[in-house]
From TrEMBL:
Domain NOA1/YqeH-like C-terminal stretches: 459-559
Sequence ranges of Basic and acidic residues compositional bias: 32-43
InterPro entries reported in the protein's UniProt record: GTP-bd, Mito_transl_resp_regulator, NOA1/YqeH-like_C, P-loop_NTPase
Protein's name according to its UniProt entry: Nitric oxide associated 1
Length: 598
């Protein structure tokens, strides 16, 4: 053992120096290029006081129009309330030809362009009340709504799923419930058939949550970020057209609802003209980005449309990667670096756009040698709108505010810390072999002490690749935490002694496990939303562990583990340490013919 502790942050998963330098400089306006929507900022949001980010005008009433990014009502009278637009900008937009339609609030603009987040004054139950009221709207087309509940598979057991029956109540005549497990792209395949095992875990979670009133029509696994499983989800949703009315996306904060909303908006599920009329929802790692309802109209899946869609899917399934365009290959390679499972979401029904008419102004192009070129004022493009006939009988897909998770460590973190804790790329398992008397730290957010056991055991960490893991002895663990919590060594929380004064202390919970074999984990120790540690031990070996999480957060012993064979995804032992070299399995692209190359 090198000294009293070891630090294991694998440099190949640290931000590139160029990215780190960019984070320290003032943000530049991002130039969007066609087909490059996937280029998201890697910088965490910075909190600013809402009142300091723009001046309000208390004499102006709310607009009655919604922010196209988060759904909040646009207003300029209260800088600390949702939907705020600085008074000067609000007036200039109101006086323009397009008005406030399609505009975004200051909070969404800052999240998208500057990585800055505004703290808003919201009642604790605001999000839940919005969802509850939406589900109790009058029936459309004589049918109840289809509820699409999205959960983060990393968060199983989902903390909000058991609350769903109470949220629905007996007065919500739902046509059905479709449960979708998101973020499967972040998890490596620990054995053949791992997706079938994950799906069965979702089914079990639904049964344990008591979801019997609303008929469970299906359980799906997807990645809203990489597109895996989404073509299948669209087909399943279209089959529910005849028996359901509107569709509501439900789920906890950070489950990926807005990301799913955005990709469905550009799929065969929405009307072909919708992407030209409706803006994408604002997506951020900060919990609770969506504040009200967002919606797009669902396309009617007629027999002809279903046939044309199936023909497109069959044709695309015969393609190899070599047959893709250079832009498609580049996009696909980008997704492969981010997730283990990747899909391709296309569109069958696209609106044919006419040739744009160019306004020719000879006066603006003619100037004498003594004059500077004169630029005519740039007109704001007229925003397209749906006609009455297009939407009078439409069914809508609604994105709803995320329901806050209680006892969650994310509620204690700043925006920069949340960005480090929430995994955005494929998680690379980190495995360590510990003897009794050794301690594992996951940043300063979790700790596991191996107190008693006859032999060594394996501890596999599944958490964001940016969170450091430290191994120490039991005798030195308290001193290490006292000295390095809030500092660079443990990384999160960050902010030094002042930050740790307000951060809750770690509280212990004793855990007793019994091993089942050297290749199969017996349980996961889930350290709230910071990640989990899979414990693998010799058959029949008893282990006494003591796990710590910040006070007020949930520590869960997950049995059986989510990925029972995760300890087998490792390289050779690193000499002189408790760590094994990491191994990252290859990515799999859905609906793409393989060429036999590795």
């Amino acid at each position: 053992m090198r000294g009293c502790y070891e630090r294991f942050v694998f440099l190949e998963y640290e931000p590139e120096p160029s990215e780190a330098a960019a984070t320290a400089t003032a943000p530049r306006r991002e130039r969007r290029q066609p087909g490059r929507e996937w280029r998201e900022r890697e910088r965490g949001p910075v909190v600013v006081a809402a009142a300091a980010a723009g001046q309000p005008d208390h004499s102006v009433p709310p607009s009655g129009l919604s922010c196209s990014g988060c759904g909040a009502e646009l207003q300029c009278c209260d800088g600390a309330a949702p939907g705020f637009v600085p008074a000067e900008k609000y007036r200039s937009l109101s006086e323009s030809a397009a008005g406030l339609r399609g505009a975004v609030c200051q909070r969404c603009w800052l999240l998208t362009h500057s990585g800055r987040a505004l703290r808003l004054q919201l009642p604790p139950e605001q999000h839940r009340l919005v969802v509850s009221a939406a589900l109790r709207r009058p029936l459309r087309h004589g049918r109840g709504p289809l509820l699409l509940y999205l959960l983060d598979v990393l968060e199983l057991p989902d903390p909000v799923l058991p609350q769903l029956p109470a949220l629905l109540g007996p007065d919500v005549p739902a046509a059905g419930l479709l449960v979708v497990g998101n973020k499967v792209d972040l998890l490596p395949a620990d054995s053949p058939g791992h997706l079938g095992r994950l799906r069965q875990r979702l089914v079990t979670a639904c049964v344990q949550a008591g979801l019997r009133e609303a008929p469970l029509v299906d359980v799906r696994l997807v990645s809203a970020k990489t597109g895996f499983g989404l073509e299948g989800l669209v087909s399943r949703l279209q089959r529910s057209w005849k028996c359901a009315g509107d569709v509501y996306l439900l789920g906890a904060t950070n489950s990926g609802k807005s990301t799913l909303f955005n990709i469905l908006l550009r799929s065969d599920y929405c009307k072909s003209r919708a992407p030209d009329v409706i803006n994408r929802a604002t997506v951020s790692s900060w919990p609770g980005t969506t504040l009200n309802l967002l919606k797009f109209p669902i396309i009617n899946p007629t027999c002809d449309r279903i046939f044309r869609r199936e023909e497109r899917l069959k044709e695309e399934a015969t393609k190899t990667e070599d047959q893709l365009s250079s832009e498609e290959k580049k996009y696909l390679n980008h997704l492969k670096k981010q997730g283990y499972l990747v899909g391709r979401v296309g569109r069958t029904f696209q609106r044919q756009k006419g040739i744009p008419v160019v306004d020719f102004d000879p006066d603006a192009l003619s100037y004498s040698i003594d004059e500077d070129p004169r630029h005519s004022p740039r007109k704001r493009e007229e925003r397209e709108e749906f006609t009455y006939n297009e939407v009078k009988d439409a069914r809508w897909c609604f994105d709803t505010p995320g329901i806050a998770k209680e006892n969650c460590v994310l509620n204690l973190l700043t925006e920069k810390e949340v960005k480090l804790v929430l995994p955005t790329h494929a998680i690379v398992p980190r495995t360590f072999i510990l003897k009794p008397g050794m301690v594992l730290f996951l940043a300063a957010l979790g700790r596991i002490d191996y107190l008693e056991g006859e032999k060594s055991a394996w501890f596999s960490v599944m958490a964001s690749n940016l969170l450091p893991v430290h191994i120490s002895t039991l005798n030195n663990a308290d001193a290490i935490y006292e000295k390095h919590a809030g500092q660079e060594l443990l990384k999160v929380p960050m902010g030094g002694e002042e930050r740790m004064k307000e951060f809750p202390p770690l509280v212990p919970q004793d855990i007793t496990l019994k091993g089942i074999g050297t290749t199969e984990a017996v349980a996961d120790i889930k350290l709230s939303s910071a990640g989990w540690v899979a414990v693998t031990a010799h058959a029949e070996q008893k282990l006494l562990l003591r796990a710590y999480t910040p006070e007020g957060t949930a520590l869960v012993v997950r049995e059986p583990p989510l990925l029972p064979y995760i300890s087998t995804i490792r390289g050779s032992r690193i000499a002189g340490t408790a760590a094994y070299r990491t191994k990252k399995p290859p990515s799999l692209v859905e609906n793409l013919k393989t060429t036999g190359k590795r």
